[in-house]
Each structure stands twice: as structure tokens, then as C-alpha cells.
Amino acid sequence: RQLAVMFLGLDRFKRINNALGHPVGDEMLKRVARTLATVVRESDSVFRYGSDEFVVVLGDIVDPQQIKGVADKLLAAISSPQPIDGHDLSVTASLGISVYPSDGFDAVALIKKAETAMRNVKETGPNDYRFFTEDM
């Protein structure tokens, strides 16, 4: 059995805070967190990691295709518009993925590698995901 760590960074989130204020941005973060929690299984975990970053841990992975399916669902769910304070707001996310045991044996290594993969996605275009590779 495998475990997947997904590091999710919202794309251009600061624009929402700058244009509409922090209360609207905070509400958007709450909605993203709720959305993430509804997409994954109850046995999986969702954590807010940084200002506009989240970590999702998928346990008990039998087939790597499961990870791709969840990544696709997460990106689609996050990008659907949210009515907040009279605005229909949507965000996209960049998502990096690391897998236990192939990418590491402890939480720090897995999160760091998933974050590296996420930063790699941000460089090439938003609203996508990528698995960690050693050449990143």
C-alpha cells in the first residue's frame, strides 16, 4: 500500500486579497478548505499549511490511478466559482504530489518533495498537477 502527499498552492490568490480585501480572501480560503475536505475520503486528511497552501494526505492507495483521479477532482472542485460578498470568485491551484515509500519515508521529506513538484507546476502553468521526480 502507498500513501500520497499533495501540496496545493492557490494560483494568484494575492490578487483576491489585494482587490477585495482580506475578509473576502479569508472566506475564500475557508471555502477551499471545505471543498478539499468534501472531495477526499473521510479517512484522508486536509491541512492548511501556509497562507494560501494546503496539504492533502491520501492513505491506503492501492493503484496510482487513484491519486490522479483525486488530483483531477480537487482541481476541478476548487476552480468552480464561489459567490462571496457579491462577487463570483474562482481560483485555480497548482498541485504537487509525492508518494510513500518511493519518494521518502517521513512527513518532512514527503511534504518537501510535494512542494517542490507544486513549485514546478507554478513555473509551467497554473491549474495542473505533477508527481515529484528526482530531476526537479
UniProtKB/TrEMBL annotation:
CDD domains, per the entry: GGDEF
GGDEF domain span: 1-134
Listed InterPro entries: DGC-Regulatory_Protein, GGDEF_dom, Nucleotide_cyclase, Rev_trsase/Diguanyl_cyclase
NCBIfam families: GGDEF
Name recorded for this polypeptide: Diguanylate cyclase
Organism for this UniProt entry: Rhizobium laguerreae
Classification of source organism: Bacteria, Pseudomonadati, Pseudomonadota, Alphaproteobacteria, Hyphomicrobiales
